[in-house]
UniProtKB/TrEMBL annotation:
The lineage of its organism: Bacteria, Bacillati, Actinomycetota, Actinomycetes, Kitasatosporales. It holds the Pfam family ADH_N. SUPFAM superfamilies: GroES-like, NAD(P)-binding Rossmann-fold domains. SMART domains: PKS_ER. This is NADPH:quinone oxidoreductase family protein. Signal peptide: none annotated. Residues 13-315 form the Enoyl reductase (ER) domain.
Length: 325
């Protein structure tokens, strides 16, 4: 079969190599999956660089989120068990962690429903306890994780402010349903948020960026607001001033979604059921901006790493797998 492999760490476009390899053999408790679609996530790029908390042994195949098909024909969502990731024709995954793919979504959309939407659901509902009528600020609102947070925020009845970088991403954020869109390249984010909220600030701030975005969050969070720290796509890990959190009376909440898979997997299943229901009634629909063939995966991962994409870019090992099941 064909699979992308990383033999040394570096930029995805330089270290990912497409090769003919043996089909992976499932271990105990694992199943073999035909990859119908693989969604590209920022951690795929970080793993190529050797900068992610999970460091699979070299060589490995990236791809942490797929819609796959079991040997008995079931269509499922899975996180492949590395080193046999999803940018390949076949992958392996833990049998007990398989989730049914929603009938309302095609393969590419189903592949993109898992990590970003689970992360956003847990961040907004489990950690921040977002309530209807509150104001939600989403950094990188046109990205893979941010677009999920926007949709889930709107589904929860929140007023959503999206922060993006550039006119193209601003248009995407508007199409996603943001009530207010702020282009950080053209506007003063802090001033724009205060203007949009009458000086009150945002009740919940969803931050997958870090760095300057976090500094803006601390200046725009409302009284008794909650800042959800999801990641550091901007490359800089901030050092919060805890005296500032004390004086302004806000909370800083960390979210490592992967821990729920080991600490409380029943919550992951519950979250998936909520997402399937939302997808069935059209309240959420993953933004799949591009569907690329397997041969173009390395270039696509590099563009995700460079922040040059919107929504999710999805790899289709077989072209016919782009349509609904």
């Amino acid at each position: 079969m064909q699979a992308w492999q990383v033999h040394e760490n570096g930029e995805p476009g330089e270290v990912m190599r497409l090769a003919d390899v043996e089909q992976p053999v499932p271990g105990e408790g694992q199943v073999l999956l035909k990859v119908r679609a693989a969604s590209i996530n920022f951690p795929d790029a970080l793993m190529c660089r050797g900068l992610y908390q999970t460091k699979p042994p070299l060589p490995f195949t990236p791809g942490v989120e797929i819609c796959g098909e079991t040997e008995d024909g079931r269509r499922v969502i899975a996180n492949p068990a590395l080193p046999h990731g999803g940018f390949a024709e076949y992958a392996v995954a833990d049998a007990r962690a398989l989730l049914p793919a929603p009938d309302a979504l095609d393969d590419a959309e189903a592949a993109a429903l898992h990590i970003g939407y689970q992360t956003s659901w847990f961040g907004l509902h489990r950690r921040a306890r977002l309530e209807a009528g509150e104001t939600l600020l989403v950094h990188a609102a046109a990205g893979g994780v941010g677009s999920a947070a926007v949709q889930l925020g709107k589904a929860a009845g929140a007023t959503v402010i999206g922060v993006v970088g550039g006119a193209r991403k601003a248009e995407v954020a508007r199409e996603l349903g943001c009530d207010v869109v702020i282009d950080r390249r053209e506007q003063d984010v802090v001033a724009a948020v205060k203007e949009a909220t009458g000086g009150r600030g945002a009740d919940v701030i969803y931050d997958p960026v870090g760095g300057q975005a976090y500094a803006q969050s601390a200046k725009t969070v409302a009284f008794e607001g909650r800042i959800v720290v999801v990641g550091f796509a901007g490359g800089e890990i901030p050092s919060p001033a805890l005296n500032h959190a004390l004086i302004k009376n806000y909370s800083i909440l960390g979210l490592h979604w992967g821990l729920y898979n080991t600490k409380n997997p029943k919550l992951v299943q519950h979250c998936h059921e909520q997402l399937v229901e939302l997808a069935a009634r059209g309240a959420v629909k993953p933004l799949v901006s591009e569907r690329v063939p397997l041969a173009a995966a390395a270039d696509a991962v590099q563009r995700v790493a460079d922040g040059a994409t919107t929504g999710r870019v999805t790899v289709l090992p077989s072209p016919e797998n782009g349509a609904a099941a």
